[in-house]
Amino acid sequence: MSANTFPAQIEPFKWAEQGFVWAGTLPLSRFVRISREAVGSIDDQLINIDCKLSMDAYHRIVWLSGHVETKVSVECQRCLNPVEINLVSDFHLALVDDESLIERLDEDADFIVLGESEATTKGSFDAPATADLLSLMEDELLLLMPLSAKHEFCEHKHQPAVEELAEEKRDNPFDILASLKGKLN
Ligand SMILES: [Zn+2]
């Protein structure tokens, strides 16, 4: 494994104690769900990542923080031609292995309860909690994907009335992510 290989699965508590940091680029194809939304070739597209794990041992909380950024071309909902969108997230996420620990967080802290997201598993007696960090970062960017991407200026290909109706009916496929990601209010 080269020093710059992004790890597929990590044990958040162990790796945080070891001070895991990673910075570099990966092909956009590693973000499978975002790639699926793309139109045209994504071969030259990259993801820029800068992330680290840190441990708040006293509160038994692991913090995943950093920056992730990529560009993807999706179909413009107005003219149906590709429109490039920038996805940029500065994240600071608490990874907790027990819901009861949430109350120790600041009110405006973002958190993930291990085992509740597809990208994480909860630890048990013989298997430690694991997380797919790349997938967690992809989740952050998916939350930023516009429901209806459009160029700033372009021409309708449909009759506006028809399009507006269709737009209203379209559910956001990523709503589930928003519900997994907690926010104390
Ligand atoms: Zn357009």
From TrEMBL:
Q: Identify the species of origin.
A: Acinetobacter faecalis
Q: Which UniProt keywords apply?
A: Ribosome biogenesis
Please list the GO biological process terms of this entry. Answer: ribosome biogenesis
Q: What is this protein called?
A: Large ribosomal RNA subunit accumulation protein YceD
Organism superkingdom: Bacteria
GO terms for CC?
Answer: cytosol
Q: Which InterPro entries match?
A: YceD, YceD_bac
Function, as annotated, reads:
Plays a role in synthesis, processing and/or stability of 23S rRNA.
State one Pfam family annotation: YceD
Q: Which family does it belong to?
A: Belongs to the DUF177 domain family.
The record ties this protein, via PANTHER family, to:
LARGE RIBOSOMAL RNA SUBUNIT ACCUMULATION PROTEIN YCED (PTHR38099:SF1)
Keyword Chaperone among record annotations? no
